[in-house]
Design brief:
The protein is mainly α. The chain has twelve helices and four strands; from the N terminus they run ααααβαβααβααααβα.
Length: about 280
């Protein structure tokens, strides 16, 4: 389940200003990276192996021609100029350990860890902006950090209480709604049209239907349409990252509807089989 989360996360990280990103990355970072060490570290986390950013960097940097920064670019910055250093507790891009290490080389710096936040804390936290504003007003004074005591805790999503584990929702969103597989989307459209026709015939001929063999196919189609519509609503109204873990717990009824549809479909097949068997016996 971590694969969709990582995929969505990296997509968001690199979706803006890619030219600027690779101009800096290919000049200041990539030349100093050790690919062997990177692969060794990545091998410890197989689920994230395909999302190691450096996998594509050799090919991209080869054509980007951003040059190679001076070796001093890879050295720690040391300064006594007043600096404010902020870090998010759950930052997956710039670890708080790295940020704190940088602050240790800035003798006049002030380091603050914002609990419950991730990357780019000033984009996420009003408290981070308050700290920045206080620092700018008086760089040599201790900023007012009272807001750190009033930050709201994270509400973690847990399996069972908040999410029903399945990759179906994320897969359907990627392959069908996001246009990842046009052929599959076309097939599903035909299935929906066929089910709609079946339901229409059911509505027109209901009074004349005398057996379960005649009713069950249309009832199955009706349940399938209801389940597909509900599933569509869930996918389009749920945060895509959450879909990487499964369906929201509020969709438990949808699971029951899918089960009812499957049971009805099996009953329909059985009824059709019994009907044909009875017809064959009469012919004999």
């Amino acid at each position: 389940m971590i694969e969709p989360l990582a995929q969505e996360g990296f997509k968001n990280i690199f979706s803006r200003a890619q030219g600027m990103y690779y101009s800096a990355e290919c000049r200041e970072e990539f030349p100093f990276n050790d690919p062997v060490t990177q692969q060794e570290i990545a091998s410890q986390y197989p689920a994230l192996a395909n999302f190691l950013p450096s996998i594509s960097e050799p090919a991209i940097c080869a054509v980007w021609d951003a040059g190679v920064a001076d070796a001093s670019e890879n050295q720690a910055v040391m300064s006594d100029v007043p600096a404010l250093v902020l870090a998010g507790e759950y930052d997956p891009v710039t670890s708080p350990l790295f940020t704190q290490a940088a602050a240790q080389n800035l003798s006049a710096s002030r380091f603050y860890l914002l609990p419950y936040f991730g990357h780019a804390v000033q984009d996420q936290s009003h408290c981070a902006n308050q700290l920045a504003a206080s620092f700018i007003q008086s760089p040599t004074s201790e900023p007012d950090a009272a807001c750190l005591q009033n930050l709201s805790k994270l509400d973690f999503v847990t399996v069972g209480n908040d999410v029903i584990p399945t990759r179906l929702a994320y897969w359907a969103n990627r392959e069908i709604l996001q246009g990842g597989n046009p052929l599959l989307a076309a097939v599903l459209t035909l299935v929906i049209l066929g089910a709609a026709v079946q339901v229409g015939m059911f509505a027109l001929k209901f009074k004349s239907m005398r057996s379960w063999a005649a009713i069950l196919p249309s009832l199955t189609a009706l349940l399938a349409l209801a389940a597909l519509f509900w599933f569509y609503r869930v996918i389009t109204t749920t945060e895509v990252t959450l879909l990487g873990f499964g369906l929201p717990a509020s969709a438990r009824g949808l699971v029951g509807l899918w089960v009812a549809t499957a049971v009805c479909a099996l009953a329909s097949i059985a009824a059709q089989f019994m009907k044909r068997k009875g017809m064959n016996m009469k012919e004999k």
